[in-house]
Amino acid sequence: MLYDKIRALYPSLTIEDFLTVITLQNDSDGKGDYIAKWEHPTFSKPTDEQLAG
Amino acid sequence: MSIVLDGTLGITSVTGSAATAVAGPAFSAYLPTTNQSISSSTWTKVALSAEEFDTNNNFDSTTNYRFTPTVAGYYQISACSNIDANTTSATSVYLAIYKNGSIYKYTRITLVGGNNVNGGSTVSTIVSLNGSTDFIEFYAQSVGGTAPILTFGSTATYMSGSLVRGS
After folding, report:
1. What's the pTM?
2. N or C, which end of chain B is more exposed by having fewer CB within 10 Å?
3. Domain holding B81: CATH number?
């Protein structure tokens, strides 16, 4: 899951972060989870390579 | 038509033909046949792929599961789900009404106890829609626990709405 991959990259992210500055989304269209919003003040948005690793 | 307005009592009588209700769009769509699990911290669109009614054919229950009314105005929208915690640990489930792809209003319920613990939650609002490009969707996500379940059925997980006032 995308959420688990991101938490593995940035273990210090909190549940609150995912309710405020980060939005993960799945549109039930068969394309899977994606990052709809990333506005975290410290951590940069993960690259596709990081998420695939 | 005649309306008598008293300065103290307000409207005291109405005579003549009755007012006619606005025949604006109204719909009710639901999650049919299969439960839908909700991922952790990931807003997931509720696949409302069946309809009870859709008076103006403005709800897409095939591809995008969204309501895009063709009449501008203010709409009462309600989204509800009966949720099975599906875990022995505490889990919170958020239900959201999305407008144009972003959260417009949400609510949260926390379920504690164990498997087969159920709870219902509803989010309701009045929203202005432009009658052309604006659209409404129903999303849910969980926090904690492991993949709670939205229970299928027209009486369990659904979204409905109707025009309450023109723009």
Report:
1. 0.86
2. N
3. 2.60.120.40
